[in-house]
Structures are given as structure tokens and as C-alpha cells.
Amino acid sequence: MAEPPASARNALINWDAEQSEYARFLLRSRGEILQVLRGVAKGRELVTVYFDHGQRFFLSSLLAVEPGQDALFLDWGADEELNRRALGASRLVCVTAHERVKVQFTLDGLDQVQWNGRPAFRARLPKLLLKLQRREYYRLVCPLREPLFCHIPLKSEPLEAQVVDISVGGVGLGNLAPNTPLLVGERYPGCSLTLPGEGALLTTLEVRSLQDLALRNGGLVKRAGCRFVDLPAAQQAMIQRYIIRIDRERIALAKGA
């Protein structure tokens, strides 16, 4: 599998941070976390595992959850080179779904083990898990092979920002310059982005959060969480169709279709 482009780096960093816009959706109870993970395993949901600060990823599934071992087991990836690199990663971010609601959790490293006679990954159970409680909050991590960009007509000069995730409620913008002119609480009318296969969206964005993300070279970029202001129902439907199509494509890819 090809590596994501440089512009996709850091797309997932700090999504589970206590100070993030998603903090209220974090599960901390071991019982609740186990319930969600078991549901993911039972539903055979696709799990996208990101590492190296989002520079690389592979597709997997959750094989089992073993609280007595403080462990979960993930299916071995299809690319041996990515598997080798993943084993050397100290932090990995898993994105999946439970009952059609987005789920995300972080793993502190992987070990290679045998599972029913075949290779698999083993990791310690996460202590935090993000589960968005309402379906309308479901956020799709945008495909790296076909990135989305949002045009924001700022007064100083137009800004082209990569969309790292999208829902019917808003977008996450990544890889922004440290001195980005975007301000929390400000609304920016006339923003536009094009969804492949659906068409163009024209909307007002309100910036809800700004986060500093550290690059491996020591540099900094920002990530902005934005909501759509009064997005028409027809455009919400466009986003829903886009999310469903991309999810289906990822499932087909994981099955080798």
C-alpha cells in the first residue's frame, strides 16, 4: 500500500486529547471500553491503523479482546513491509466504527503473535476510547488517495486547506501553517469544497478549535475543527452519500474486491 502524501501527516494526532473538541465523547470506564471493542470485533468492522504520525496506515480487523491478558488482537496486514514498520511504532491510532458510530483509540505499540496458527498483532487495551454518541457526528477520515481541499476566501488572501475528516456537521482542516489567520469563534462565509462524485459545497464555516501538532522534524502545524453553519439539507445529503460510498469502498478493499 502506498504511503499517504506529506500533506496528510498529523491528521489524527491529539484527537483523543482531553482539551480537544471531542473530549466529551471519551470513554474512560474499562467496562464501557471493553463493551465497544467487543462490539467492533463481533461486527467484524474494518479497522484502519495509522502510525508514524499518520504517514503510514494499514487495514485490519479486531480479532479478539482479552481483558484477563489486558490485550486485544488485530489481524495481520496485507503488506509485510508495513507490518514490519508498524511493529516498530511506539504509538498507533485505530479508527473504526461501532453501531455505525465512529470509534477511535490509541495503542502504545504492537507485538507479533500467533493467532489460530497465523500471524497477528497484540497490543495492550487502551485506557481511553473515543466514541461519538450520535450518528450525525460520525466523521469520515478522508481518503488519502483522493484528498479533499477547502477554499476559504480570507480577506488577506485565499486559503486552501486540506480536509482531513468530514461529517454532516463540519470538517477538520489539517496541515495549516503555525501562523494561520483562522480564529476560534470566527465565521468565514463563502467557503467551498468539492466532493468527488457528488459535487460542490458552498457554506459558511465556524472555527470551533485550533490545535498545535508537532512534526517529526520539530516543526509545528495547526489543525482546525470547523462546523458548517446552516448547511442546507440537500448538501447534508451529499455528504452522507459521500461518506457511505467511501466506507463501502474501504470495506471492499479490505476484502480484496
What descriptors fit this protein?
single chain, 257 residues, alpha+beta, Pnp Oxidase, Chain A, Thrombin, subunit H, nine-stranded antiparallel sheet, six-stranded antiparallel barrel, globular
What does this structure look like?
Keywords: Bacterial flagellum, c-di-GMP, Cell projection, Cilium, Flagellum, Nucleotide-binding. Acts as a flagellar brake, regulating swimming and swarming in a bis-(3'-5') cyclic diguanylic acid (c-di-GMP)-dependent manner. Binds 1 c-di-GMP dimer per subunit. Increasing levels of c-di-GMP lead to decreased motility. Belongs to the YcgR family. The two termini are about 15 Å apart. About 15% of the residues lie in helices and about 45% in strands. It folds into two domains: about 5-135, Pnp Oxidase, Chain A (Roll), CATH 2.30.110; about 140-255, predicted glycosyltransferase like domains (Thrombin, subunit H, Beta Barrel), CATH 2.40.10.220. With about 260 residues, it is of the alpha+beta class. The protein has a nine-stranded antiparallel sheet. A six-stranded antiparallel beta barrel has the order 11-12-13-16-15-14. Mean pLDDT is about 85; it is low at about 1-20. The chain has helices at about 30-40, 80-85, 235-255, and strands spanning about 25, 45-50, 55-65, 70-75, 90-100, 100-105, 110-115, 120-125, 130, 140, 150, 160-165, 170-175, 185-195, 200-215, 220-230. Strand 7 (about 110-115) and strand 8 form a beta hairpin.
